[in-house]
């Protein structure tokens, strides 16, 4: 697993330029900031983290943050761990007009999917990874992934009412079929969200996962917790344990045959 | 696996402010120090390490250090790898009065469990993780995890007398059932410690592990050694080797059928 | 997995010397540059990344960049994560004359293979790793590795025409037998490229993989995407799923018996 | 997996003190140096690396470098990733007199084993880890681990004559039984080296591995290559492939039934 802590000298040059953006264009000012919590900086920091987690290998995956009416989106085909704030697209949320177009990059094919999460789910951030845990789960489940009675479930909101899932609840994540082109996932994503209005995530078969949240930190936490649960479910299956079997009315009742 | 070495610029700002805490409130002075071995700094450093180990994914897990009568506790629902000293709660050990309450955070639900380790076990530090090794082991064992005849066992104290387990001893870690709310684990933890008074750790089924020690470094070492042993036991089981089978009166006697 | 972020102080001394190369020899000027995107700096940065990925453990693997008529090559038997720009060989592309020969190092045995990728495939960068994913795949497939219908395939070019593989295409990577000496792979590599003229990669049985690209970043992206696919295929096989089975005429049709 | 790049502030304080050791005692001057390649600094750098590789979890493992007649040894029971040069013992090679004794630490129980590697094998560095790959292999093989026909074998010296193993050779590593106390391994280590005079490594059952070399970098490379091979062998066994099966007189002949 890679560690990119040294970053590239490019990043340092970028950081320097952000300290004195006096000559920056109005478009560049949308992404240049010395505030580490500015969406453009957060996107770059998280993409490096996701790369280290092997979630955005090659140029896979994508990420977007909606900040007011500005929607920040990582471009298509970029190495996520080497991305700089000036590589980002900025769109207007209301009319999808491109406010900032980076040189040499194309818009992400995930753009309509990010907007779907914003419009239908009132989300303000969306993360898309090619996590191998998500791909493997999509090969082992047909239409839904379910996991129950694992503490980490409590990191995920109920959705249908305020608050989070309890330990005794079941987390359900819908799975949709992949399409030839990423943007073609917009309609299936629209349909599946109508069917699962409370979900915060969507697995795309043989492809990866989309996770969204009320803000980028919520989206990051949901994504980490769900990936933990997907990976745990794979380990459970390797030992012949069903991830969604009920543990019964008595606390902790588990089929004794799985025990040593 | 993530590497967060670059930290956030927030952390650097935090570090700066700790260098000149002249205007800090008395409550903040409880957590602001330029000494890297101050409990508040150690907690933040170790939480980043635990995050990199995938032990506190999302906002999972918790940690506490008792220093004299001050008990430092990471707050509820915080991203462990982004935590700052000023995010910590400080409680008085004797009467549980809150000496410092961070803005925007709730106390950790682990608080009564940390105090149980301090009161019953004379511990001064307690680590709680959602380690997948611990969760998997809790799905494969009923009431106790046992492992014998592995060198790493020697990192764990006997408990019933001074000194550490020998290579020929068996390490036993009790397993308790999970509850709907973390604080409800207080009574079962109390009971299990009465039953296993020499244990330094407690596995919570489908949840994770609690490990404590005489100081934070001992707790860290026990936690690392135990997680190593849990992970090794899972690998042994994948190859059909029982982690707690006796190796006989002759040194190194092992069932020859497991050999190539 | 190792993190080498602290680097060695040697590296910093090296960096200092690159800032004031006034007294450097003409040969050294071929590899000393303050530009982080200079081929000599990129090779060192990527070798550290590959080490962290366990692709070049020990002194395994190799890397080369062709920049105009200069061919930069990591030397034989060097610890990749500790390599400095001054450790590199530089050869002339047209006549293979050595333009720069580092002290105490021998040329890489991969040299003729890198040139084969350049001459036959019009590549400008070539990466060779001892990835365990590649070695394991070479033990499970005879002459070709195939994988189909995985999103990550879209990172790999078609080769026979512009553009990239589609989600519904099959990626095929030829496998050749290993030889006693690395340079003896030149003829088999020549032959297999004639047979698979559109491939960007070549697996060497019980040895590792060669991946090349139009430039170093393309080669890096292809290598990451292919290693992701090799690792995913191993996981699929562990669950009894064939990586190259067709998903049928209907989108997403998968053998239902593999589902839970 | 942990990344400790930020190190601790202690390390930086240590580094500062090494810059101005004017007031240092003669004993401390044995371990204080601004040269990153000084044995005391190399030991600390490598211990952090080994910790990140999960080879010295808790306080497991050990390391020693012989430099002239000075033998540098990490102390007993120290957290390897937090170790400082001033934590090291220095012994005289000829008479084992302790030249430097750190405060608050006990000598490593590995000391007689390190000296055995130096005396019997003419080594100048010895690495001891609790690698789980080594422990697992020790549970699956009786007296010897063997692996053949894997490129990475070529990183290991023949021993019986100059030069390295060829691709068609078999690497053999002896396995000895663990003992109650680490220092009791001295006699078995002595005996096994007499029996396997050309080995560079020794697996201790249910414990870990010792690897030595002509200098620390050779020892590091051998250790990395051997751990790679142990880990690969475990993966091969999971797929039912024997790591030491001959590939026949024809190059690359493999039992076709293992293929897809």
From TrEMBL, chains A, B, C, D:
Pfam families: Aldolase_II. One of its GO terms (biological process) is L-methionine salvage from methylthioadenosine. One of its GO terms (cellular component) is cytoplasm. Residues 41-234 form the Class II aldolase/adducin N-terminal domain. One of its GO terms (molecular function) is methylthioribulose 1-phosphate dehydratase activity. Zn(2+) binds at residues 128, 130, 207. The keyword Metal-binding applies. Its main location: cytoplasm. It catalyses: 5-(methylsulfanyl)-D-ribulose 1-phosphate = 5-methylsulfanyl-2,3-dioxopentyl phosphate + H2O. InterPro entries: Aldolase_II/adducin_N, Aldolase_II/adducin_N_sf, MethylthioRu-1-P_deHdtase_MtnB, Salvage_MtnB_euk. It is found in: Cytoplasm. Its EC number is 4.2.1.109. The active site is at residue 151. Binds 1 zinc ion per subunit. Substrate binds at residue 110. Signal peptide: none annotated. Keywords: Amino-acid biosynthesis, Cytoplasm, Lyase, Metal-binding, Methionine biosynthesis, Zinc. Its cofactor is Zn(2+). It comes from the Eukaryota. Pathway: Amino-acid biosynthesis; L-methionine biosynthesis via salvage pathway; L-methionine from S-methyl-5-thio-alpha-D-ribose 1-phosphate: step 2/6. Belongs to the aldolase class II family. MtnB subfamily. Catalyzes the dehydration of methylthioribulose-1-phosphate (MTRu-1-P) into 2,3-diketo-5-methylthiopentyl-1-phosphate (DK-MTP-1-P). NCBIfam families: salvage_mtnB. HAMAP family: Salvage_MtnB_euk. This is Methylthioribulose-1-phosphate dehydratase. It comes from Wickerhamomyces mucosus.
């Amino acid at each position: 697993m890679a560690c990119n802590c040294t970053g590239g000298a490019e990043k340092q040059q970028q950081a320097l330029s952000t300290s004195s953006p006096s000559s920056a264009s109005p478009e560049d000012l949308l992404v240049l900031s010395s505030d580490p919590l500015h969406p453009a900086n957060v996107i770059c920091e998280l993409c490096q983290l996701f790369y280290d987690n092997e979630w955005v290998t090659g140029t896979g995956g994508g990420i977007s943050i909606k900040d007011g009416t500005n929607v920040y989106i990582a471009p298509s085909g970029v190495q996520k761990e080497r991305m700089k704030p000036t590589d980002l697209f900025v769109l207007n949320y209301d009319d999808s007009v491109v406010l900032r177009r980076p040189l040499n990059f194309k818009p992400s094919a995930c753009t309509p999917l990010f907007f779907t999460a914003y419009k239908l789910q009132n989300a303000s951030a969306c993360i898309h990874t090619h996590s191998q845990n998500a791909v493997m789960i999509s090969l082992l489940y047909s239409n839904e992934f379910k996991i129950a009675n694992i503490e980490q479930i409590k990191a995920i909101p109920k959705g249908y009412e305020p608050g989070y899932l309890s330990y005794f609840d079941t987390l359900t994540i819908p799975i949709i079929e992949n399409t030839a082109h990423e943007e073609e996932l917009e309609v299936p994503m629209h349909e599946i969200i109508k069917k699962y209005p409370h979900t915060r995530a969507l697995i795309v078969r043989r492809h990866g996962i989309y996770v969204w949240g009320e803000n980028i930190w919520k989206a990051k936490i949901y994504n980490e917790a769900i990936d933990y649960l997907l990976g745990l479910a794979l380990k459970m299956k390797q030992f012949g344990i069903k991830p969604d079997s009920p543990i019964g009315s008595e606390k902790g009742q588990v089929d004794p045959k799985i025990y040593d």
